[in-house]
Design a protein that fits this description.
Four copies of one chain form a homotetramer.
Chain A: H1 3-10, H2 12-19, H3 22-29, H4 34-61, H5 65-92, H6 103-118, H7 121-145, H8 153-157, H9 162-181, H10 184-210
Pathway (chains A, B, C, D): Cofactor biosynthesis; thiamine diphosphate biosynthesis
GO biological process, one term (chains A, B, C, D): thiamine diphosphate biosynthetic process
Family (chains A, B, C, D): Belongs to the TenA family.
């Protein structure tokens, strides 16, 4: 069992909760209220900008120049996806650009930035991994089950790309390599970081589903 | 009007919400259920460790050596207060040490760490200021109104110290000085950071009052 | 006069010293001893890896997402140029890959990494600017004067590219924009950082010319 | 053999070079020209401010709160020593406060700041260790051999303090503990960092002895 196999096993209950979440189910069925999808995409654009920053921090702090290059490419791609959301989906689904992160997006992005700034690269890599890996798995799950006449069709199709699949595999290989070089204590921190980001993936969908707003 | 006067004016509605919050009211009256107080102190200990880290980052990034010294002293003091919680209040109020940050503590600490790692020192100073300043004001408010036979008496009394009052004044002076040197755009970021941390102060108390736990 | 015009004026004596340096003169004439060129390219490969890290830090810390994208592209490009050195020039000029930074490369890269980690983005941008700008100007200077039968012909020609010229213009525009938003104190730090990196450009060539090695 | 024993063995030739350096010899004999001592103390004051920043970064990035506290105390102490230089030795030896770091101080401080910002805490700890450990050993060496009628008597005596000895022991214990938790690759980086800082200790004295100035 690879280290990343173990990571996935650790979050098995969280992953099941994500697949069972109303947001995922209704998106698949094409029954998700527009407001929830709009909320989600608007927050996702804000998320991706910080995800790019977190990946840039991993680039800056990697010892190995192959990893520096790989993380700069991931970082660049995250911003290009953010741009694509603005240029395509914001228009397509009538979404207003927002600047205010709602609670789950706020918690998740600050966790990624703090972790990739301050913890080891291995722990930072484990923290950014769920956004690659869970996204791919949930994406495949939705893509395979999505009804044909789905109003979110255009967006769901982007999940099927091979380019993203390849990125996830590269990120998994980096994480396993960093885990191999880490001691047991650092591996424990990697597992904690992976689990925390996986929880926050669930919260990200849940915030959109509940239209969560700040109370003060 | 100084810059910090303006900061306080900005958060006036948030400050009012804090004073009116059930946690503050019941603490003052001595009617707060023990479990809420235990939750609060346990989370506060976890918070203070990261608050110290955030202050150390400001020390590391300050241009002025007076500020380096001041921030190292604040950072050291935050850990000493964390120690005092463990050594005194954990025993006094039968609190179990915890390692899991609940949602508000998690969001707040990661925001402080990300901001003090990545934003300018001026913006980082504005982010750490509410924990000094709101705490002093709420502390005075509670201290002045607290009933005599209050089970939280020992803890409330710590609010009355002059040492803490002096720290807050020093932190206000640093913030005003940094704001004076900042351009309008950076001042805007300072105001955003101050407001965000002030919101998170409310959430910190609210999490204890609602015994908030992670949903997954 | 733009802010960057002023930066250039500040370093006018340093720039003159670079143009008059034996390394630049002998490179232009094709008379530079091979060992000096080998030393230079080997150190340049080590430099570029850290230059990429410094640019990634600026990406991570930029508030504006256009700047995040731009800095990730610069960061990626620096690694691609480092790769090109290894794949093309190391073979062409019989250069051994090295892992030990010599004094000038060591001082320069650590200055860039420390500055982009800890100072404001504006100051960090001023620190990375000389590697773009002085390189372009010196490159043009050498290209225009280089003798035809120059053993370093292949390498000198890369200076003539429009892509690099465009990058320098983008970096100048970012620096001017960040300076406009900065207060006078921060602008002073930007000027210091620009001057320091410009000095280190001179030292970088001088180390190659003198085959400088660590004394202990 | 502990990890730190191995570190010391690694730098044995560098340590011998330091003991044999003219600066150390002439300081011990009281024959060091005043200008060299002035240069050294002035640069040391600039060094200590950044040494404090580097220690604050280690505080900020330590997982263990005991280490956070210890590093904040080291960081605070470094600034207090810097203050003492200004208040006592600058007057006593007629030293002008300076703001310009000379080459060795520049290289060393930027290395410490870049390493403690970006590398793991274990590697950062190895980088700051020589300033504790070599200083103590060289200090003892000078103290035991110094002539009585030494014009640098007041300064040399500060080496004899038990407080500093205790700090060094604490720093050695932290380094050994971090090394125990590190994998082989990270231990290799620790050894590199320790050796590099040790070299830079030699350069720091050598710059004072040669009154080294920037060439451009």
């Amino acid at each position: 069992m690879t280290f990343t196999d173990q990571l996935w096993q650790d979050i098995s209950p969280i992953y099941e909760s994500i697949l069972k979440h109303g947001f995922v189910g209704e998106l698949t069925e094409g029954a998700l209220p527009t407001a929830m999808f709009q909320y989600y995409i608007q927050q996702d654009a804000l998320y991706l900008a910080d995800f790019s920053r977190a990946l840039s921090l991993l680039a800056a702090r990697s010892v190995n120049t192959d990893d520096v290059l790989q993380f700069t490419q991931f970082a660049q791609n995250a911003i290009l996806v953010e741009r694509a959301l603005h240029e395509t989906y914001f228009a397509l689904y009538d979404i207003q650009p927002g600047t205010a992160k709602m609670p789950a997006c706020f918690a998740y992005t600050n966790f990624l930035l703090a972790t990739t700034s301050l913890q080891s690269v291995a722990v930072g890599a484990a923290a950014v991994l769920p956004c690659f890996w869970i996204y791919r798995e949930v994406g495949k799950y939705i893509y395979q089950r999505a009804v044909r006449e789905n109003p979110y069709h255009a967006w769901i199709d982007t999940y099927a790309g091979e380019a993203f699949d390849e990125s996830v595999n590269l990120m998994l290989a980096i994480t396993d390599r960093l885990a191999d070089a880490a001691g047991a204590f650092e591996q424990g921190l990697m597992r904690d970081a992976f689990r925390t980001s996986s929880q926050l993936e669930w919260y990200f969908w849940n915030d959109a589903y509940t239209q969560n707003r700040w109370l003060v």
